[in-house]
Amino acid sequence: MNYESASYKVFKAANITFLSVLVFIMVFPFLNVLALAFNDPLDSQFGGITIYPRVFTLDNFKLLFANDEVIHALWISLARVAAGTTIAVLVQFACAYAFTLKEVAGRGAILIFLIIPMYFNGGLIPTYLIYSELHVSNTFWVYILPVSFSLYNMVIIRSYLYTIPDSLGESARIDGANDWTIMTRVYMPLSMPIIAVMTLWTAVYHWNDWTTTLYYVTDHKLYTMQYILMQILKEGERVAKLMEEALMKNITVISSGQPHITPQAIRAANIIVTSLPIIIVYPFLQRFFVKGVTLGAVKE
Amino acid sequence: MNSVTTRAENVARPVKLAAKPNWRRKLKKSYFAYLLMLPSIVLTLIFSYLPMPGILVAFQDHNIFAGLWNSPWVGFKHIREVFEVPMLRQAILNTLLLSVLMIIVSFPAPILLALLMNELKNGLFKRSVQTLSYMPHFLSWIAVVGLTYSLLDVDGPINDLKLLLLGADAERSMFLSHQALFVPMLLILSVWKEVGWGTIVFLAAITSIDPSLYEAAKIDGANRFQQHRHITFPGMKTTAVIMLIFTLGALFGSNFELVYGMQNAFIDFPVISTVVFSSGIQQGNYSTAAAVGFVEGLVAFTLMISANFIAKKVSRISIF
């Protein structure tokens, strides 16, 4: 029964080798930048850094966090994740729950109203103009409100709610619970798995997004960590400012005629700050992420 | 299995029983539902519907002080420009080229990887391969761009490798400013970031195939290749077609973060999304940018509808 041909054995060995190489390619860039971020910046210039720091230092991070704008951006990012995720999950759950209720007049029409924007939208420029006109541009709310409702997420939550037996709500009603209590005390606790999925997805979106800032925000006070990273990568000005401030505050010294810092090291430290939180958390929560994908793929 | 009654099945009966005019209860119940839907409706109205009329900007010489209703109308002037101005035409061609290449490269990649992963025995190695290949999906595009900058740096590991292979006196390259490497780099990066994550749906599809089919095929003397050809592939077809429709619909012009991130002064590769951003938001040519966006939206919409139509004809699978 378990007879394996020689050619299949060869295939298996080749497959394992190929996938090992693939995994290496997947993780190497990250490990390399991790090493670079903890390595002495002037030493890094000689090249040859692989996956561990050659001359260990925390200076790159010290320099990054000595900058007030960076610290502020970090807070904005965290506030955005907290507020954006909470509001989005509540809005979407409430909507999904409402769609599972019976005898709601006009339910179909409302659903169509919510579906249409999936196929037609104004596009970037009309959106940009309207946001300016409504004065949402350059406010914290431009991060939160436009993405609080997502039809896709709502539909996934709804299909999860459909798997919870009706009788639970009915027996709670017989016991005297009102609509609100039934939703918050019966269905919400039972929906925790799907709420966890949505919370994670939304939180990752908010943490990672930088184009909203690029399009609609010019106020420096609203910059996020990812946007600062974009500036470090693409605008020499940001790097120059960081280095200048570090010199002024005596965080970095000038040795043999040049400052003990390089743009590459600042860049590496910033990449690590923006991606490490997710990389650390996600292996533990992976099953929730994956569950969401397979749930979403199930077509109703 | 029988004990699991879905809510949908359960309601059919009570509705019949409550058919006598119970309008007060009905309204009260509807009222609660409306209240729950209200935030979603208001948000959709403001952030999805309100911008829609703004597309008219493409048909006028928009003046931000005059507003949408008082700016002079110019008909199809800007739409014509999209096809006449060389830079805009170039952007459309580049977008098409990139979209076609992306489909060719990034659509089959997760299917192949899922097949290879499926050949592994369940265990630590399989789980590690899965977990680690999902990882890049969770990084932001700009962090991925950052990793690339670092990797391809003059004193980065790729140049180290080059020197190792070609001898220490070989020249270190500035890969990022090579025009010829730009498109291949975009393709590699998008596969790198999403291929692992893309395997999830296909692995789920393979897992849901009835194992007895393979047993039966084995007894009939099918070899491994034949088993895949006649069982695994048909089992993945629905998922593959649906993913293809989604990819087609989302693809056209959706590469802004990657292209914008990777662009620099040495690279000349405008695509629709970067042109809309630079000419519209950065330079304030709202009408031109809106016209480009309008053409893009039209093409994307047509692509998705026709993909859906073709899929329906060929395999009777559709998303609407």
From TrEMBL, chain A:
<feature type="transmembrane region" description="Helical">
    <location>
        <begin position="143"/>
        <end position="165"/>
    </location>
</feature>
<keyword id="KW-0813">Transport</keyword>
<feature type="transmembrane region" description="Helical">
    <location>
        <begin position="73"/>
        <end position="99"/>
    </location>
</feature>
<dbReference type="InterPro" id="IPR035906">
    <property type="entry name" value="MetI-like_sf"/>
</dbReference>
<dbReference type="Pfam" id="PF00528">
    <property type="entry name" value="BPD_transp_1"/>
</dbReference>
<dbReference type="GO" id="GO:0005886">
    <property type="term" value="C:plasma membrane"/>
</dbReference>
<keyword id="KW-0472">Membrane</keyword>
<feature type="transmembrane region" description="Helical">
    <location>
        <begin position="111"/>
        <end position="131"/>
    </location>
</feature>
<feature type="domain" description="ABC transmembrane type-1">
    <location>
        <begin position="74"/>
        <end position="285"/>
    </location>
</feature>
<keyword id="KW-0812">Transmembrane</keyword>
<feature type="transmembrane region" description="Helical">
    <location>
        <begin position="16"/>
        <end position="38"/>
    </location>
</feature>
<feature type="transmembrane region" description="Helical">
    <location>
        <begin position="186"/>
        <end position="207"/>
    </location>
</feature>
<keyword id="KW-1133">Transmembrane helix</keyword>
<feature type="transmembrane region" description="Helical">
    <location>
        <begin position="265"/>
        <end position="285"/>
    </location>
</feature>
<dbReference type="GO" id="GO:0055085">
    <property type="term" value="P:transmembrane transport"/>
</dbReference>
<keyword id="KW-1003">Cell membrane</keyword>
<protein>
    <submittedName>
        <fullName>Carbohydrate ABC transporter permease</fullName>
    </submittedName>
</protein>
<comment type="similarity">
    <text>Belongs to the binding-protein-dependent transport system permease family.</text>
</comment>
<dbReference type="InterPro" id="IPR000515">
    <property type="entry name" value="MetI-like"/>
</dbReference>
TrEMBL record, chain B:
<keyword id="KW-0813">Transport</keyword>
<dbReference type="GO" id="GO:0055085">
    <property type="term" value="P:transmembrane transport"/>
</dbReference>
<dbReference type="InterPro" id="IPR000515">
    <property type="entry name" value="MetI-like"/>
</dbReference>
<feature type="transmembrane region" description="Helical">
    <location>
        <begin position="238"/>
        <end position="256"/>
    </location>
</feature>
<keyword id="KW-0812">Transmembrane</keyword>
<protein>
    <submittedName>
        <fullName>Sugar ABC transporter permease</fullName>
    </submittedName>
</protein>
<feature type="transmembrane region" description="Helical">
    <location>
        <begin position="134"/>
        <end position="152"/>
    </location>
</feature>
<dbReference type="GO" id="GO:0005886">
    <property type="term" value="C:plasma membrane"/>
</dbReference>
<dbReference type="Pfam" id="PF00528">
    <property type="entry name" value="BPD_transp_1"/>
</dbReference>
<dbReference type="InterPro" id="IPR050809">
    <property type="entry name" value="UgpAE/MalFG_permease"/>
</dbReference>
<feature type="transmembrane region" description="Helical">
    <location>
        <begin position="31"/>
        <end position="50"/>
    </location>
</feature>
<feature type="transmembrane region" description="Helical">
    <location>
        <begin position="289"/>
        <end position="311"/>
    </location>
</feature>
<keyword id="KW-0472">Membrane</keyword>
<dbReference type="InterPro" id="IPR035906">
    <property type="entry name" value="MetI-like_sf"/>
</dbReference>
<feature type="transmembrane region" description="Helical">
    <location>
        <begin position="91"/>
        <end position="114"/>
    </location>
</feature>
<keyword id="KW-1003">Cell membrane</keyword>
<comment type="similarity">
    <text>Belongs to the binding-protein-dependent transport system permease family.</text>
</comment>
<feature type="domain" description="ABC transmembrane type-1">
    <location>
        <begin position="92"/>
        <end position="307"/>
    </location>
</feature>
<keyword id="KW-1133">Transmembrane helix</keyword>
<feature type="transmembrane region" description="Helical">
    <location>
        <begin position="198"/>
        <end position="217"/>
    </location>
</feature>
